[in-house]
Structure formats: C-alpha cells, structure tokens
Amino acid sequence: MDQNELKKAVAAAAAQHVKERLHEKFVLGVGTGSTANAFIECLAAFKHDIHCTVASSEGTKARLQALGIPVMDLNSVDEVSVYVDGADETNAQLQLIKGGGGALTREKIIAAVAREFVCIADQSKYVSVLGTFPLPVEVIPMARSHVARAIVMLGGDPVYREGFVTDNGNHILDIHHMHIVNPVALETQLNQITGVVTNGLFAVRPADLLILGTSEGIRSIKA
Ligand code: 5RP
After folding, report:
1. Structure pTM?
2. Cα(115)–Cα(156) distance, rounded to whole angstroms?
3. Rg (alpha carbons) of the chain, rounded to whole number
C-alpha cells in the first residue's frame, strides 16, 4: 500500500472505532489534514447517526457541514467523547508533533477536552525521537521576532511560515533542527515564552490510542 492507501486504511479503522461507540450524547472531535479528511469521508456512510461534532479548523468544519453533519461550538458541549486526528510525527509514547496544517491551537484545545484522543497515521510518521519534522509554534503577530529570538536561545532554528495566517489570526514559526529528547519539558518551556499561543508538541496530553498504518497491516498502539 502507498501512503495514501495507508491513510485511507487508518481513517476507515478510526471510523469503525467511532461507530462502535456512538450514543445519543456522543460528541466527536474531528481533526485537520489529509488523514483527517480521509476520516471525514468515512463518516459519510453513517452520518445520520452522528448527532454532534466539534471541528479543529474552519476547513474541517466546512467539510463536515458539506456532508450535512452537525458541527457545534466547543463551548456548547460538556465534553468530547472521542477526538480523531492525524499527526506529523509520533513516538512510541504517543507524544506527537502536530500543526503541519497550522491548526495546532484548536487541535490542542479539543485534545484537552477529549475523553479519548485517537491519532491516525501512516508508518512514515512513526519516529524514535521527535523533531525531524519542523515543530510549529503559533505566535501573536507582534511577538513574532521576540519569540524567534527566545527559540534561538533554546537551540532551535525558527522559520517564519510566510503568507500563512491561522484560523485565529496568528502567525506560525516552524522550529527546525530540534532533537526533542524531552518533549514534555520543551512543550512547557515554549509555552512560557510571552507571545506564544501554543506549540505543536502534544506530550503533556499525548494521544491515548495510535492507529498506525504499516505495510504489514494496521497496528493499534495504546499509551
Ligand atoms: C494539522 C495537523 C495534521 O494532523 C498534521 O499536519 C498531519 O497532516 P496529514 O494528515 O495531512 O499528514 O496537525 O494542523
């Protein structure tokens, strides 16, 4: 299977995982990116059984609404039953780098509210040490240079994602050349820089379940 087929396979497995758990008060969190889009396509088959979703980006919200699936504001729901999203990298502890698509802040908020966070990824995303994929940091626009200088002090190489504005009206710095041996410590450190909205390390709140597409089949890995 090529990468695209693996994405479709993990999306289908996640859709089945959700389908088996649906009930009247079930709230589904839906992520952003090409793997999450494959998951949304799988939802079409049982869309009438899905009463409520929350979306991690405006793009995902539009895709769900185009299928006729109800999307609610996160403030209107008490909790998210299951949140399904892709990742740019994952390690064996299910700590992630996310935000390649720039939706990291809303993704992290939904992950924080979710009872179960299911990550779906093809095998190319599975790494021993996080950091080969540039780590995204969402910043308040006026703080961009200040945050970039602070990242350099931490040993990173921040690159401004030019021409990109997040759904929250902010900018992204992508940190290159970080060998992230302690993801929890770095996530916490980055969040303490004034002007940082959030960063794409999902280590304080990792995924609970990884559905990984490999050439040998689908692996389910629990934290
Ligand atoms: C978007 C994300 C995505 O989950 C991540 O970039 C993976 O995307 P894809 O499934 O297209 O490889 O974090 O902000």
Report:
1. 0.97
2. 33
3. 17
